[in-house]
Description:
single chain; 731 residues; mainly beta; 6% helix; disordered N terminus
Amino acid sequence: MPNTRTRPPLAARGAQRTLLATAVTTLILSATATARAQSSPESAPTLGTVNVTAPKEQESATGPVRGYAATRSATATKTDTPLQETPQSVTVITADQIRDQGSPNLQEALRYAAGVRNELYGIDNRGDWFSLRGSEESTLLYNGLREPLTGYYGVVRTEPYNFERIEVLRGPSSIIAGQNDPGGVVNLVPKRPLDAPRREVGVRIGNDSLREVHADLTGPLNAEGTLLYRLVAVEKDSKTQIRFAQDDRTFVAPSLTFKPNAQDSYTVYAEYQKDFSQNTNAFLPLAGTLYPAPNGPIPRDLFAGEPDWDTYGGTRKRVGYAIDIGLGDQWRLSHQLRHDRVDGLMESMYVAWWDGFRNAAGGADANGQYLNRPWYIYDDGLRLTTGEVLLKRDWQLGGVTHKLVFGMDATTMDTSRTSASGDGTPLNVYNPVYGTFPRPSLGNATPTETRVRRQGWLLQDQMKFDNGLSVRAGVRHDKVRNTAVGGETERDSATSVNLGVVYEVMPGVSPYASYSESFNPVAGTDAFGQVFKPKQGEQVEVGVKWQSQTLPMQATAAVYSLKEKNRLGDDPDNFGFSKQIGNSRVKGVELEGQARAGAWQYLASYTYTNARASASAFGGNLAFPEEQLEGIPKHMASFWAVRDFRDLGIPGLSLGAGARYVGQVGDGTGQVFVPSVTLFDAMAAWETGPWRFALNVNNLADEDYIAVCLARGDCWFGSRRKVILTADYRW
């Protein structure tokens, strides 16, 4: 286990020095008194006990956590707030949990969190696909600010090793995130400089020819401890469970923090990431995957493109800074600004599942072994600048403690996409022969450019009463301008509110209730050229939080009702287009707990999701619900436990195992259902001196399963067994 203690701030170190000096002085005076007493004929006096104390290690909302049970977060409130006083459901996935579970990507890191449906499109490496509380898609934040899309065409995925925490805030969250989908947000909290030295370098090897080196180095750069640094780096070369598809990455993230005193900090950071792979997705038909086919199941490692030229990947360059300073009289100013430049390229092919099996010439043949293949190219570019300014004040008024936040944020995003597509050659999916189609080109395709300008203003007050009652009230107004260069400009605005109460009825037991809203403009048009309406969300949530007063143990139970207006979904009649399917209503129950008790660490969750759509969504009816929304299971559950064997005389050894259950998944039409699946994970770790060796096996039994089949008729395979051996050296 790495040393998670941070170097005390300057004021605290001064207090330690004062305590130490006092103790030393007392000991000297006591020794002198003792010597004098021994030289005196009188009996020696009895000396009093001297106690020396040090400041208790404190968790911060953005800092490291020992184990899995975090107690504070800023994701839901923009302030460093105890989770027990946060009137919404929040899950904190710590760096220790990411490490112990061997999470290779964000999608996998979320697999043990309540309310999260990952693998929305199986092993599709175009993005980290997940849904919160039945939402169509979910919003990513990077340290509280909007993150570019995680997927689609060449956009770079996130690197889990770079994060101190991955925090899941469930439910409409426009109050802190601006425009977001109703299901919630995932906030990525990056690793930042620490004031205590922590250095780690390591290697990973695994199946699918995985080879990786990584490093995480941090600490002070000067004797005063006012200048701190951190460097996180990853170099990975790997194949995947799909033939010819790679998963290569170069990642470097340096950062510097200047802390002239205990109150103020200034941080600058940069990131460079380059990903390269080929597509793992194939868009396979129902026959040969979920259903039987004349020639048997389609091989699970089928590569649908052309290995000689298939390309997927991109480069992201990021710079930014964050300032947090005291202004006196209990006021603080927080300001951060970030700029991203992302360039991605996809050149690939997929199978035309709607055509069914064909013969070698591409003609219809129910007993054939061939599938037609369209080709497509997307050359994407994104330039995003986002920032916020927050004024915060803590003060007492009439026996009530107030945390006031007033601020604004703004985002400018310019995108450019050049695309082309056409028909390629058929592929024998049972005995593929490649090299039958030359590399296509964009030709004279014209780029499509868009410009998005967003602004938001926030006012929030967190009130804590002496009787254990906490109240949060916030209001936010957003304005969005979305322009298609050379075309129309769409303007949208909305005011969102959030109200929540938490009452500690007894030590550690806190029932809560909240109402929240969301607003998210939708760019683009449907197959008939109709502009989409903004999506809106409303949610009522009640629950209870429990936190042990003596041990790092906590649990949350939540019940909610969420309504989404103008939900977007795939158009089953027009491939490549979306349509708005009306309203959806999601009602659910979520149970979740984290604990560290003695030699054990635990995670457990259960999710029940009843998700229905309105009459325009494939025949469903909001008043008389019939079918679960596409891709969303009613039931999910997970359990993870790790045992440390130090108390049994085997210091350094820990063993862990977990189970994940995903219930039956339908396509939203009531016609197609994917069976439920239970997956098992395991880990073993050995720490000796500065070394840590670990073995992770995800999908231990190598379960061969289908993650989802969509209403339009295509299916997606799930992740097969992944074995990773890690060796880390820390000093």
